[in-house]
Amino acid sequence: MKRHLLSAADLSRDDAELVLTTAAELRELADRPIKKLPALRGRTVVNLFFEDSTRTRISFEAAAKRLSADVINFAAKGSSLSKGESLKDTALTLEAMGADAVVVRHGASGAPHRLAHSGWVRSSVVNAGDGTHEHPTQALLDAFTMSRHLGAGKSGQSLDGRRVAIVGDVLHSRVARSNALLLHTLGAEVTLVAPPTLLPVGVETWPVETSYDLDGVIPKADAVMMLRVQRERMNGGFFPTAREYSRRYGLDGRRMATLQDHTIVMHPGPMVRGMEITADVADSDRSVIVEQVTNGVAVRMAVLYLLLGGSEPAVGGEE
What we know:
The protein has two domains: 8-133 and 293-307, Rossmann fold, CATH 3.40.50; 136-291, Aspartate/ornithine carbamoyltransferase (Rossmann fold). It is of the alpha/beta class and 319 residues long. The two termini are 28 Å apart. The protein contains eleven helices and nine strands.
């Protein structure tokens, strides 16, 4: 793997499969009474979050701690950043602290790239979500979850030929972009389903199909991923009403009944129940939404371990 993980496009198929294989080994730790490994003992991981986050920040913190790394959580609110300190000065502070990896979430697209290529830090940089741009570890955990349910081939991980529908607010979704890139790399066929107003300019250059017709796409899908409508990033009327959006692009019990028997339902969270997904679907046997969270820790453990160049096997004889 490269030194940084900034985009799903950074990952070759071999890189992605290495992360998934390593995550599968580490996932077994979740079922052990003692969930810690000494693989990154003595290393320091900084979580640098300029945007609010619960799931992703806690997931990275748990991942680093389970590998025995020291973790520093750095939230922009209440720090010198709220007093006007620049990204550069913050980076220099982290460098002085001896950070080995910096996990960055930022509201501006491209901020993690700036940090990685500025020369301000020598540490590995992991993009934990930048603006509406990308969220590569979310795409990896989504692919890992799909491979556990739909995988084929010798490794049991191949998604070749699997059909994935990603539905909803694609325009504002960094998850959709990263998933489109990574799933294509892994051989899956992705269809984005959204109203025309919620598809980004230039989507025709993505390695995906697009559709405005949810009912025409989901009966053929092996996985259906629902996206939250990100009202906080909207300043105009992207659809007439919430009720109209739900009627045309929400996943309810009636639509769930049209899915194939093996099809799984996913959501990167946080969910708006009753908007893009109804409670009965979110809590159904088809839903792997809670499992995605568990898998996220294993995948982020794998990413940190591989980026920081663990010299021993990630999972040895430790109990």
